[in-house]
Amino acid sequence: MNVKKLKIFIIATAALALCVCLMCALTPESAEVADAVTLKQGSTGSLVKTMQTKLINWGYLSGKADGIFGSKTKAAVIYFQKKNGLVADGIVGTKTAQALGMSLSGSTSKPASGGNSNSADLNLLAHVVYGEARGEPYTGQVAVAAVVLNRVRSSSFPNSVAGVVYQSGAFDCVSDGQINLSPNQNAINAARDALNGWDPTYGCLYYYNPRTATSKWMLSRTVKLNIGNHAFC
Amino acid sequence: MAKKKEVQCPQIIEVQDKKSKKQRSPRVIKTAVLGVVIGLMASAIAGLSVALYYSTVNVRTHESYQRQMDAVYFRTYYDLIDGANDLGISLKKLGVSTSPKMQQSLLYEVWSAASLAENDLGTFQSEGDGLKKAQKFINQLGDYSHALAIRVSDGKPLSAEEREKLVKLGEIAEAYLSALEKIKEDVDGGKLFVGDGGALEGIEDAFSRFAEPDFAYPEMIYDGPFSDALEGRTPVALTGEEISPEEGEQIVKKYFGAQDVTFAGEGKGDISTLNYTFRADGGEAFVQLGKMGGRVITFNMSSYDAPAVRQEAGATCQEAAIAYAEKLGFHDMRTVWSSSADGECVVNLAPVQDGVVLYPDLVKVKLSESDSRVIGFDATHYAFNHKPRELASPALTSQQAESRLSVPPVREGRLALIPMRGTKEALCFEFECESGGTYFVYIDALTGKEANILYVIDSESQGMRTA
What we know:
The structure holds two protein chains of two kinds. By secondary structure, chain A is mainly α. Chain A is built from ten helices and three strands. In chain A, strand 2 and strand 3 form a beta hairpin. The longest helix of chain A has 25 residues. The radius of gyration of chain A is 26 Å and the shape is extended. Chain B is an alpha+beta fold. In chain B, strands 1, 2, 3, 4, 5, 6, 7, 8, 9, 10, 11, 12, 13 and 14 form a 14-stranded mixed sheet that branches. Chains A and B meet through helix 1, helix 2, helix 5, helix 6 and helix 9 of A and helix 1, helix 2, helix 3, strand 1 and strand 2 of B.
């Protein structure tokens, strides 16, 4: 009996070990699923605040935008939906958001790609800013976007935003994949400022972090400006 | 006896029991050990074979990615060679052509071949001076040919000097082709682009000739965005004495009413600036003063959570923008454009001289849409371009200019000075027209020719802009 039990136990253990091995080998890296955001009663945050501000500005809601989706906000959303021929369910999904002139793609979900080709440059620039300089002061983020645009304008670099960004070895965020992170509103604003012409570097084509840079060629260049952790040249 | 037997028997049984236990236990241990060993070996073998399987798959995937990458590089490379050949031939033909029609078509061919080459060249690495110089050569060659093509189409054939320059550029194009062919030896020898010791690593070397100091480029000054004339521009509007960081600090305190102003170093870009930061509305504001004269050139901060106050955005923002510019010493400004996105409004202002809007001297003001508070200011264009202009009087009336439009304008035309290719400016009548979209059409006030057309694009994320 004992021996049998032991055998069964051993075989079971071996089988279990095998299963674990197989499981480890077979389980793919869990993919991050970005779910679409909707705002409904109980939601809070800056998106709710933006939405409330818009509703207040247009007279659908009175009071202050506090960033909390309560029953009063819900009533205002339903009122807005009715007025605008939308399904009056009090939930702000893609369509209602569109009618409100706002985008629900904040930092919690991926911004809709494609769409308007005019925004492609803004989108790509915002990704670069977020991937390269999200920890930098706001002006430092504008400056990084401005460097990309200065390269587009320079005769020594490719003539499009994508050409400059994806030039081999040009930006670390492209080689380490951080360019694929979803940018936050700050990065988007910084990218837009640069597209509107703000350039705190006044024509710089390069930047590096003096604490981590190793390229001799880069370090030999004259630094024209320092913002945050970046030296611009 | 019977009692003894009774007593003995259990003893015997006990001994026998102990014996059998002693006999059994090594067997159990053996089996256990064997079982564990077999189990471990089985799982090890299974684990290893799974690992082996996946590593083979990985290696194959890796190889297939590498081949795909190589294919992209090979395609780009062969396109570059083709393009370089085309460039050389077109430039040679330009050297002998005498008809403006032929010249124009050849110049457009050079422009188009150079655009393709520029695109392909950008696929390769970004560091290294040789490749950069080659890129600059290609860009300028295309841009110059384009500018000449426009000029020739205007009825002015190539001058002897321009032909000479094109011949010189043709020689550089040959050097460019031979640099590309150096890589061909590697490629013909069976080298791939990607990987250790791949042909990619040899590219910078192949173009090293371009970075040598004795490699002669002609000076490229013409009307185009890549003209050498645009390098090292001076900010003509910034005059006055050089100011010290302390004086600058006082200026920032005066204009922005901030107390905790920090000097953040100098900027030595195309405009020399003194930079300052201060805390404002929970964020950090960054101000740049012109070192010469101490004017505010830019001010910027990220938008803050503005209080929600009901507003008639547009008009209020525009008034606030003009008032702000006035406060900073930018007078006679008029709103020429405003656009909003994500709660921020950007108003473009231009100075007006003798009723003419000076577009090259734009000032941009960024405001928070909900309370019209200024959160950004940029007078870079103004700093580079603003000076009193000598404006010729128009040879056409507004009505005459209007008669050249294909679509009736939505309002009367107005006189404006607009930037042209390169550093040129042109006095034009500006008309806003509607025809399946909004257009701004510019009719040259001296020649009556169409000088430019802008089309308005409206996008949610970027606001309204023209292209």
